[in-house]
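thought: user wants a sequence for this fold. calling inverse folding tool.
action: design(structure=
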């Protein structure tokens, strides 16, 4: 029986070549697009799931005022476990920036250097290629390095017992080599140093402080997974514990499942590389709808051509075939088409993976040797075949012999209404994707072009790795003495994604019950002029005035929160952590975080210790400025390698994920229209074929080619116009939801729906017109003779 169904299916496919090619091509492109998306989605959803305790391991987070941070004070790790039954392990990590390691003549800055506790291996399933997990982090001068780091410095992974030097002279003995993680993780561990060593110089760890710095990533593994109610109770317990030991700050705490960190965490201090659940959800929907468009093509063409198979159905029923047998046959044909499409789709995906990886910045792979993946792909293909074939199978199997013999069979389900509905659905999806792509592009263009409150052009920065006032003075003199680097300012950080903040600012009239956290930058007297920031009132800092070390400059938002305006704020007395000072200036608000966030109150403090140098290059002399910076670097720095960056590029990189999503949306919108037009082409060819006699009579009566083209094309205009009307509110809702994540955003332009609809309409009419022109050019004599 199965062999008979298969033979019939192949015969029908070969008999109707054009119909088969359109269906296979549409489904192949749809399946290839969806497989590529699902590979990316699977990759995004896999983070930290390889840990055996991932379902009951949580990270502690903190929230104070408008700040939400991924780390907490040092004392929380052991302190919370002591009072909480059910905690089976806890571990803390602290990431150190700007660390240089060297071995002989090899020297590199390793950004993924962490101080960790031995309990790291109790909480997470990180394995060692060499060394013992139980003792590798117990030696105060021991280190664990990744396999990649071992090969980079030593040329081999078997390096236990070797010496690696941190900084200029601090030596550590390699006690273990980390194996490559079994899956993706939010913790990019390259160099692990013992917490016991951190305790020798960090007072937060040494004194087990509850206040002070919120910089320690803290994780707890519980005996069982926790639901939302239990996590809320644990959060209250953490708040009570903190306030019992520290009265400095009103803080709320939360517990975040480690498998949620990658996609559901946009916190201050988060490690780089996190994704977005919104984008995962959006692309998953796109993957489904693109396959759906291919399925709609199949249903459309199958039902449109149903009259051609009516005689076959009638004869088989007369011969005794049951309806269920016919349904099985037609579903079998549908699944066969899908399987052929799947084979082509796999070839497309494998060939296109390098381009896809370059686009999304990943290393996706299609491992066809993995049983789960194969089962999943085949399952998707079977479901696709059933979805696309079930309705045509029901329609075709429903013909009755008596109607077939009387030739009382219409070429479609319920006439053309059903097919028009399917066409509308296709173009609702296509138009919505086009609108979404355009809105994302416009928002990104708006961000790039928006006045952020300072001039980002020609600003080159480098980290001088200095927290010492003497070195700061030396560096300033060296850079200012060179004509290409004389326009220089020093700050503790860049104003592109500022994360530091202070709550210890008080002023006359401050509500003692209100907690305000001020974003804080340490800047020198040249900062305002180099960045071309508008100084509304007052003055900048003056390094010759010793009193300026306690004075501050604030932004407009801070002045408003304090109850002042720009004029009255200047010379107001303030107190910062018990140090008296005053406000010496007010600057116009400028953005120091991504435009997803509204401008927060800000305090500028006088910088006397350097850290980051920002040079204003002359227009057209970027190369000369960088060369001069390198010369100054070579004369003043022997440990760190020379590195630099550009403020404008840093700002663009903040929106890299949005740029990738915009490109993906655009690509899939084009594919959606392409697949939809394949279906339209098939429908137009069929309609032209069905109306051959009508076209011949019209031409014989004097109709022009233009009249015939107009006649055949107008039936597709109304469905596309209806799709525009339906797509408008859907596109608005989706894009309004996305734009809500930005504090500064464009207004939704309803004209975009009309433009996208017009583009879809023009493309579809061009597609349909090909068959219309062919039909219109046929000699009427041949048309009538064929009937």
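)
observation: tool returned 787 residues.
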């Amino acid at each position: 029986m199965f062999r008979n169904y298969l033979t019939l299916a192949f015969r029908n496919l070969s008999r109707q070549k054009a119909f088969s090619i359109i269906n296979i091509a549409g489904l192949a492109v749809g399946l290839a697009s969806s497989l590529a998306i699902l590979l990316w989605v699977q990759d995004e959803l896999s983070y930290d799931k390889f840990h055996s305790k991932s379902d009951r391991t949580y990270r502690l987070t903190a929230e104070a005022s408008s700040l939400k941070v991924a780390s907490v004070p040092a004392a929380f790790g052991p302190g919370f476990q002591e009072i909480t039954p059910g905690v089976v392990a806890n571990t803390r990590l602290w990431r150190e920036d700007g660390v240089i390691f060297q071995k002989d003549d090899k020297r590199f800055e390793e950004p993924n250097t962490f101080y960790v506790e031995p309990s790291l291996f109790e909480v997470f399933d990180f394995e060692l290629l060499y060394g013992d997990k139980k003792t590798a982090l117990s030696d105060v001068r021991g280190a664990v390095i990744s396999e990649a780091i071992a090969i980079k410095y030593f040329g081999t992974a078997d390096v236990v017992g070797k010496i690696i030097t941190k900084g200029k002279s601090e030596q550590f003995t390699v006690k273990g080599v980390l194996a490559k993680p079994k899956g993706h993780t939010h913790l990019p561990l390259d160099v692990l140093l013992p917490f016991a060593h951190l305790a020798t110089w960090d007072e937060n760890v040494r004194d087990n402080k509850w206040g002070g710095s919120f910089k320690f990533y803290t994780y707890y593994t519980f005996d069982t997974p926790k639901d939302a109610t239990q996590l809320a109770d644990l959060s209250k317990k953490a708040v009570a514990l903190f306030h019992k030991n520290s009265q400095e700050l009103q803080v709320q705490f939360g517990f975040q499942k480690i498998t949620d960190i990658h996609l559901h965490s946009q916190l201050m201090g988060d490690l780089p590389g996190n994704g977005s659940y919104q984008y995962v959800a959006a692309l998953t929907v796109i993957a489904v709808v693109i396959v759906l468009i291919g399925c709609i093509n199949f249903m459309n063409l199958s039902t449109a051509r149903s009259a051609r198979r009516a005689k076959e159905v009638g004869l088989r029923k007369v011969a005794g075939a049951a309806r269920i047998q016919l349904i099985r046959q037609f579903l079998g044909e549908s699944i066969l088409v899908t399987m052929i499409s799947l084979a082509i789709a796999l070839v497309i995906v494998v060939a296109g993976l390098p381009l896809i990886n370059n686009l999304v910045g990943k290393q996706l792979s299609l491992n066809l040797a993995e049983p789960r993946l194969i089962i999943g792909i085949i399952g998707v293909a079977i479901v696709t075949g059933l979805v696309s074939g079930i309705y045509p199978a029901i329609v075709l199997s429903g013909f009755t012999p008596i109607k077939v013999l009387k030739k009382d069979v219409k070429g479609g389900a319920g006439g053309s209404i059903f097919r028009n509905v399917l066409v509308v659905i296709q173009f609702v999806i296509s138009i919505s994707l086009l609108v979404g792509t355009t809105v994302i592009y416009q928002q990104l263009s708006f961000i790039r072009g928006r006045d952020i409150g300072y001039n980002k052009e020609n600003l080159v920065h480098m980290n001088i790795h200095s927290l010492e006032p003497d070195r700061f003075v030396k560096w300033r003199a060296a850079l200012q003495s060179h004509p290409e680097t004389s326009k220089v300012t020093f700050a503790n950080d860049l104003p592109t994604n500022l994360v530091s903040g202070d709550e210890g600012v008080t002023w006359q009239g401050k509500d003692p019950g209100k907690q305000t956290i001020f974003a804080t930058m340490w800047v020198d007297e040249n900062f305002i002029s180099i960045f071309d920031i508008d100084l509304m009132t007052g003055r900048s800092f003056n390094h010759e005035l010793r009193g300026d070390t306690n004075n501050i400059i604030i932004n407009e938002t801070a002045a408003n929160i304090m109850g002042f305006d720009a004029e009255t704020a200047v010379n107001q007395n303030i107190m910062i952590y018990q140090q008296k000072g005053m406000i010496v200036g007010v600057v116009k608000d400028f953005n120091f975080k991504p435009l997803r966030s509204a401008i927060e109150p800000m305090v500028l403090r006088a910088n006397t210790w350097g850290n980051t140098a920002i040079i204003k290059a002359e227009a057209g002399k970027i190369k000369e400025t960088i060369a001069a910076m390198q010369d100054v670097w070579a004369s003043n720095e022997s440990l760190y390698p020379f590195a630099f960056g550009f403020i404008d590029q840093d700002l663009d990189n903040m929106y890299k994920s949005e740029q990738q999503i915009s490109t993906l949306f655009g690509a899939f919108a084009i594919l959606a229209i392409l697949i939809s037009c394949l279906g339209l082409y098939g429908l137009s060819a069929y309609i032209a074929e069905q109306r051959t006699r009508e076209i011949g009579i019209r031409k014989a009566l004097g109709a022009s080619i233009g009249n015939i083209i107009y006649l055949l094309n107008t039936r597709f205009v109304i469905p596309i116009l209806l799709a525009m009307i339906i797509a408008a509110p859907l596109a608005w809702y989706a894009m309004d939801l996305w734009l809500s994540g930005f504090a500064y955003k464009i207004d939704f332009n309803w004209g975009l729906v009309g433009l996208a609809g017009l583009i879809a309409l023009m493309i579809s009419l061009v597609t349909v017109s090909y068959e219309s022109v062919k039909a219109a050019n046929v000699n009427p004599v041949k048309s009538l003779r064929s009937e």
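thought: summarizing for user.
answer: Here is the designed sequence. The radius of gyration is 34 Å.
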